[in-house]
Amino acid sequence: MHIVLSLGGSLVNTENGTDRDYVLRIREIIAKNENKFGIVVGGGFGARKVAKKMREKGKSEFECDEAAIKITWKNAQVVADVFGDMAYPKAIKDFKKARKEACGETGKKVVVMGGTIPGVTTDTDSVLLAEALGSTRLINISNTAGIYDSNPKENPNAKKFDRMTYDQLIDLAVKSDRRTAGTNFVFDLLACKLIARSKIETHFVSGKNLEDVEKAVDGKPHSGTVVS
Description:
Blueprint: E1 2-7, H1 9-12, E2 13-14, E3 17-18, H2 20-31, E4 36-41, H3 44-56, H4 61-83, H5 95-103, E5 110-113, H6 122-133, E6 137-142, E7 147-148, E8 160-161, E9 163-164, H7 166-176, H8 189-198, E10 201-206, H9 210-217, E11 225-227
Parallel strand pairs: 1-4, 1-6, 4-5, 6-10, 9-11
Antiparallel strand pairs: 2-3, 7-8, 10-11
Helix pairs in contact: 2-4, 2-9, 3-4, 5-6, 6-8, 7-8
Organism: Candidatus Bilamarchaeum dharawalense
GO molecular function: ATP binding; UMP kinase activity
Protein name: UMP kinase
């Protein structure tokens, strides 16, 4: 069985640089689990920074996306490097290659990807990877401790959901999805529709709460949000 992690780029690529120690903690969690894993890494601070600079230069959103995707590849390579022999050594850029390396006879325990094409977020990439690998569980690891009815950073009274249906998540994403490079939102609309079509149980946990991350990886109850 493969489990797919959508690893928020802001946990790997911060204002202070690459947080290899954090990636090592994720590696320790995965090493203890018997399943195989696919990891899709977001762009984080670097992607937001480069997208902002390019917009200031009048570049198109397509070009901003291309630049942000390159940052995700760099972040993904950092993750692959930290995982060492446990992972395929190169950041993978397409789903067929990921499936080949993950599912072949000599497949590694972990394959790592970044973004793929402009207009598609790493949220969506993670769901597509889950579909490609036949995964029924996806774990979204970000700076937010689950799904809320509004932005908890802006609304201190925001309500967190313990469980949601796919349709509830889609309705919330409709209000949040701006689809521009370097922005972040709960889970983009296309990704929401894809997990619904393939009935992929999706867990949303805070990457700062490594106990919750480990519980989600192990299929145990956690304090985040489960969508099914």
